[in-house]
Amino acid sequence: MERNALHGNVLLATLILTVLAGSVVHAGREAQPLTVKLQIDKPYCILNFMETLRTRGYYGPTLYGHYRKSKYSDDETLARLVQQYASVKTVYPYNFDAYENLDPRGELGPVLP
Q1: 108 Cβ partners below 8 Å, 6+ apart?
Q2: Which residues of 78-110 are buried (b: 16+ CB within 10 A; e: fewer)?
Q3: 52 within 8 A of 59, measured Cβ to Cβ
Q4: Does the predicted model carry a pTM greater than 0.85?
């Protein structure tokens, strides 16, 4: 049943985007047909779901609300999987040679000669 509700939400979002995209009119020109292609990226969906659970809904409060109401909210196996996901390093620092380290305000600044 939850899958049907989620599928319904995706269809509603698709319909809204299609209507909005179709109503775009360029100033001084006739409306050009606009085609919007939506594609669901399954790996991204899984990562988004795991990140939503890890952050307790910070990045996806609506999805987290659906999760909390579902039968899976007390699933210990899923809780362990989220803990394992939280230990995976997904952010890597990087350094550009043309920039100095962070200044006291926390902003990057160019290296001046």
Answers
A1: 96, 99, 100, 102
A2: eeeebeebeeeeeeeeeeeeeeeeeeeeeeeee
A3: yes
A4: no
